[in-house]
Design goal:
homotetramer, alpha/beta, 2 domains, 7-stranded mixed beta sheet, 3-stranded parallel beta sheet, about 35% helix, NAD(P)-bd_dom_sf (chains A, B, C, D), nucleotide binding (chains A, B, C, D), Gfo/Idh/MocA-like_OxRdtase_N (chains A, B, C, D), inositol 2-dehydrogenase (NAD+) activity (chains A, B, C, D), oxidoreductase (chains A, B, C, D)
Chain lengths: ~325, ~325, ~325, ~325
């Protein structure tokens, strides 16, 4: 927060004392709360940032809105469509409050550049997106433990790609999805009916199409890539997930190392995202990224999971 | 043919006198035929090369086999599965004769390199393929006129990607396909129920999956790309369809021009392919690329077209 | 400064009221001085940051040291070798004070990565450097007006490459330099005996060699690149001055836009650099980048300028 | 030769019986000679191809010209400037005969593309060349044994870069050169006063400049690169010596393998070169690449070697 102009971190809340100690010692947060209701009652608090389990998002957002606070919440909004709608309904009752779900990739400089170029007609009319979220293989399989509550690979990973596709294609209505997947390495995902590699086709109205790929098993690093094709050109963000500007020429050939995780890849974007939220709160400016976007991403993500399980297209 | 060791071009056949004149004047072919049966009766003829309309392939191959000739035939073998099987049955009666369908990409040096590396375990166990065949936009729309008989974008373009996916994944049995497409520019394809951009998912046994993309509308050039992901790495052939080794830095940024068509991209591969055929004929060596492969590519391609039209997965 | 942990901007100094107003209004600096001596007397000031004309650097650094302040000063230390030595002598009398000359590229993440890899033996023994600093062509020719006091292209631009070469090659003693240059566009540089494109060879002891290229006339952007070759490999920083992770495929081919100036290229490095300085001041840790390094860079830069004018090698 | 239209290999000549046997068995050459004079007397011989030790080139070319034969000879023409001039004088007496020295890189498709683009003004006025010829490290040190007669690294390797620089810059007169070098690995080159890594600056008239780098010690492969900078852009041939279109993503990062030697890099160019020669002979068309070019390359190469030894610039 110290890096976000206009924002001051006044309080932190967690049921875990270890987290509160870290907030106090590392972030020098002056006020600490174990109880969320107590946090919301903190005098002088303008906005809350929710980095909590997804299942808690809806209720916590609603509670914050009712307490008159702006809300920034990590994606996804919820794994349950009804919950998404409840949050949206509550937000509609507080038009003066900002609610932003953290689809961080929209704030990445390269994605922003792509978006602006599309707006300026650089690729004609965009009609096709290929977007992937591929995590580096983690021998510890941390995400496997998380699989029970993650909503599966499409709601956990592809939700970003879904949001990007909608944004870059001009928010078309989805019509039909089809998904498939495989367990290439993590056989223990079977218990959660989840896969470690998934692909999907999402058909929108007016002949717009998105194809998604999500993976947990990349060897070379975290590989996030999005390609947008239009009638007059194509834009690609992240064709090589290079770690930095260093290139190595040695017995392995000419090569570059790769970013190991989304954090290194989107570190700057997280800052831009939060700054955009704070700026919007301070300027009372409407955010482009809305709860409707977050709801739609969840809706499509759920359909992908249904298709994966039913092996049938799912109509939207 | 003058560039293929061990081969001599002894005769040419075409119903069109203009083609025969070109063969005589440009290729210096000594013997010319208007009639295919007459060609097959030419004394000293060992093999025929069929560069004819797809609808003629099956009968012409069968006729050649019955005349005791080896056959090289451009892809696809046929748009009709029954025809594919008739050809295979006939070929089975002539085990001493070679029949090769021209899936030229298998003979490209980069694809060969990828194949060898996979064989040597470079990426562990391969389980996922993304493969695309994207033609440069042709304002004359030549392919539109051809659409009536091409079999559609999947049988015309993706058939290459299908063959590559099977080859690189170790010839797994296909299980289910799903396809979608759009007419981004060429609205006149509607009359043929064809699209100018198509995507598809092909699920194989044992959790292997291929995703295909075919397009007629690229602005930058002919963009053929194949990605093979395994449990220990990923190989990509053609991530940038660079025309040559020249890079330009100017007001447009840092850039390279692209190959305009499959011909520039696969010029060397055509030569390698024909040389491999001639070598196999001369050495009586079994070809790795079989009629069963060509039949399977047509079978999957037909299923993709069915899925595109029915908007339903097609079981194989 | 608000982005540098541990630092607080307490005062600003400039003879120009417009600059002071900007400091007050934009940076919210609480104390403003027109007079440098008055600034140095400011109570509670620990360190000064000098972003002043090069000709003022030596005296201002000496004055700050005598006032007991740590000093960060933009490169180059001075265009005059004697001045460099005077500053070093003064600094030696204040071993408890830090003086850092802003060779910002050393703090760039990619250069840092290269340095670490070399330390870990990634390229065997490094013996050859090629390093370039190429500015985008500026139709306004701002730098031409600056040419009278810049010290010429080698002291203004290549001084960075000189410092990088020494650092990456392990600080070898320079032995002999040879330089050449041309005025490709800016003929008006003739009055300053300066060029808009210069190349140079710098021979160090033990057969280590660096080649430099500096330019003011690039069309595509600011192109800073450094290549370090060792007995077991080569590292390249900045082989393509890509603006971000966006790639465009259109009628111009496949391309990326480029950073327009050193500021976009080294924005993060400036922050890292200042943070490193502040950290060193707070931890009383010795800086790796010393006044001796800055002096050596000036010494070699002067020799390059002499060689350019005399068309003879200059011994060091 | 079987791959060169219009040419027939009628005879071969070598003093070594093993070479003659190879020509007979592998190339099926019908006529074999141990004696060069006897070869030249062969009935029906139009042209000779000299792939002989450099020291023999001048006399063999002159003898062939006097016998009325066209001559293709491997580079360099000679290591001796007087010999170059003797050959040119003899050639001038046979204006109907073609003599071509094999500067193969001019015939590479990428270099040809660069040349055409420059002719069409793509980079404005070209004024700066950086060109390198870097061989992969050979643990057997074959070239060391060859060093006694190679003329040293500049006449052996950089002679290509010299020729390219002259060609791409519009054949300007050289004015002054300066060279330096080091023995990074091959200390045994000291006996030949040669180096395994050399750099040089060549100044031409009108402010045009070329910088050369030659190396025998690359780890990653054969790395031939040329950069041409003009007032409106820059062209780079070979910025990454990629082996083919395959890219590997694995634990080493994202990478490509490299061509191991000039042969893989310039295989197609050799064919184009010989075809151009044969075409010129048959069409009686003047070759763009002349003996004057070959002489100039040797002249500049000799000057580089002199500068390396004298540590002084050499005027031309």
């Amino acid at each position: 927060m110290s890096r976000v102009p206009g924002a001051t971190l006044v309080a932190a809340c967690s049921p875990l004392s270890s987290e509160l100690e870290w907030a106090r010692d590392t972030l020098q947060v002056p006020h600490l709360y174990e109880d969320y209701t107590a946090l919301l009652a903190h005098d002088g608090l303008d906005a809350v940032f929710l980095v909590t389990p997804t299942s808690l998002h809806p209720q916590q957002i609603i509670q914050a809105l009712q307490a008159g606070k702006h809300v920034f919440c990590e994606k996804p909004l919820s794994l349950d469509l009804e919950d998404c709608r409840r949050v949206s309904a509550e937000a509609a009752r507080h038009p003066q409050l900002q609610v932003m779900i953290g689809f961080v990739r929209r704030f990445d400089a390269s994605y922003q550049d792509a978006y602006r170029k599309i707006q300026h007609g650089a690729i004609g009319s965009p009609f096709m997106v290929y977007s992937q979220t591929c995590d580096q293989y983690d021998p510890d399989g941390f995400f496997v433990k998380f699989a029970a509550t993650s909503g599966g690979i499409f709601l956990d990973c592809s939700v970003h790609d879904i949001d990007l596709a909608r944004w870059l294609l001009g928010n078309p209505q989805p019509v039909r999805v089809y998904a498939s997947g495989t367990r290439a390495i993590h056989q223990d995902l079977a218990q959660f009916q989840d896969v470690d590699n998934g692909v999907a086709i999402c058909e929108f109205e007016n002949g717009k199409i998105a194809t998604f790929y999500a993976s947990r098993t990349m060897t070379h690093g975290h590989d996030t890539m999005t390609e947008i094709t239009g009638t007059a050109g194509r834009l690609t963000v992240g064709s090589n997930p290079r770690k930095n500007r260093l290139e190595i020429a040695d017995a392995h050939g000419v090569r570059n190392e790769c970013v190991p995780s989304f954090f290194e890849r989107f570190e700057d974007a997280f800052l831009t995202e939060v700054s955009a939220f704070v700026e919007a709160v301070r300027q009372r400016r409407k955010l482009e990224l809305t709860l409707a976007d977050a709801t739609e991403a969840t809706r499509i993500g759920i359909a992908l999971r249904e298709s994966l399980l039913s092996k049938q297209p799912v109509l939207l």
